[in-house]
Design goal:
oxidoreductase; SDR_fam; alpha/beta; 10% strand; 361 residues; NAD(P)-bd_dom_sf; Rossmann fold; globular; Inactive hydroxysteroid dehydrogenase-like protein 1 isoform X1; seven-stranded parallel sheet; mitochondrion; 3 domains
Length: 361
């Protein structure tokens, strides 16, 4: 019988017995191979050699599973804390927490009007800011009579660049503003390619969606800092989750608002100021008048009043939220989709909406 020391090749193993080889530099890893005629025996021998690696992989799998379970638990708790618990408990006294007056821009329709009504329902006096005097008068009178609060209004066209702000600043100088809601924004009316947008539309988007939030915040923030309390709510959009073609300027302006809100909060949280970025999805308003499906209330599209009721209950609890639990799930999904998938979906759906706008029949 040949042994491992017989011959230059180390010899051959005896039938049915193991063959062992030591490393050139002395004792080391011993590899054991069995001359077997059954796969199960071979698998057992290989498993013994790889047991360390199997244990390591098991540890990695366990760590991943625990991490995902903790993440799921935290997400569930966050949803309950934001969208369920506030509805079960009593309403927060917004006047005591932030101040007597709230300023709401673009407040004659949609989310702005509904948010103003919800604030008034909680005893906050309202200052409405929009460009249509007749609508302002009607909404102001309605809120005052319905909720028994003081209301005022300021006529301002935010698309005029720097023009409206001196008058707004003068009108607000003697008011103790506790809450500012930056809701004004510009949407082209339908999804469209960037080169098809007019220069006026581009400037209007910059002035209304970006400049207005900056200037209104700059006007009211010093007073909030002085009294060491206040809240600023900026209405962003689910489109800030990913780059969205065919609504490029609108989505980019919402990304700006989201970034602006989060950064300002870090700057002034220590001074008692709470800044919130709201990122809603579709809400049943007249934002897209030619498409009845987008304007219709549905399971995923609440009315403006329903949305405002949920969103205002998150004030002071989360600096970045969709404001409505169903939209929270949609936003989480949107953030996790691959960018190419989101972009292709936006191009497809935006193309349909564009065709509906250009060819209604």
């Amino acid at each position: 019988m040949a042994t491992a020391s017989d011959g230059p090749q180390g010899g051959a193993a005896a039938p049915g017995g193991p063959a062992r080889r030591r490393g050139r530099n002395g004792p080391g890893l011993v590899i054991t191979m069995a001359a077997v005629d059954h796969f199960s025996l071979l698998y057992r021998e290989i498993s013994r050699s790889c047991s360390f690696y199997m244990e390591a992989l098991a540890l990695v799998g366990a760590w991943y599973t625990v991490r995902k379970c903790v993440s799921l638990a935290c997400g569930t708790y966050s949803m309950l804390r934001l969208h369920v618990i506030p509805k079960l408990g009593g309403e927060v006294d917004l006047v005591r927490q932030y101040g007597q007056w709230a300023v709401v821009t673009d407040s004659t329709d949609g989310i702005g009007k509904a948010y103003a009504q919800e604030l008034a329902k909680r005893g906050v006096n309202i200052i409405l800011v929009s460009r249509n005097k007749e609508k302002l008068e009607a909404v102001s009178r309605s809120i005052s009579e319905t909720y028994n609060v003081e209301t005022e209004f300021i006529v301002a066209d935010f698309s005029k660049g720097r023009e409206p702000y001196p008058a707004i600043k003068e009108a607000l100088k003697d008011r103790e503003i506790g809450i500012l809601v930056n809701n004004v924004g510009m949407f082209a009316g339908y999804a469209d390619y960037y080169t098809d947008l007019s220069e006026d539309m581009l400037w209007d988007t910059i002035h209304t969606s970006i400049a207005s939030a900056n200037m209104m915040t700059h006007i009211v923030l010093p007073g909030m800092v002085k009294k060491k309390k206040g809240a600023i709510v900026n209405i962003s959009s689910v489109f800030c989750s990913q780059p969205t073609p065919l609504v490029t300027t609108y989505g980019a302006s919402k990304i700006y608002l989201d970034y602006f809100s989060r950064a300002i909060h870090y700057e002034y949280a220590s001074k008692g100021i709470f800044v919130q970025s709201l990122t809603p999805s579709t809400i049943a308003t007249n934002m897209v008048p030619f498409n009845s499906w987008l304007n219709k209330r549905s399971f995923l599209s609440p009315s403006a009043e329903e949305y405002a009721s949920h969103a205002i209950s998150t004030l002071g609890l989360s600096t970045r939220t969709s404001g409505f639990w169903k939209h929270e799930l949609l936003f989480a999904l949107a953030e996790r989709l691959p960018e190419w998938m989101w972009a292709r979906l936006a191009l497809y759906l935006g193309g349909i909406v564009r065709e509906q706008a250009l060819h209604p029949k």
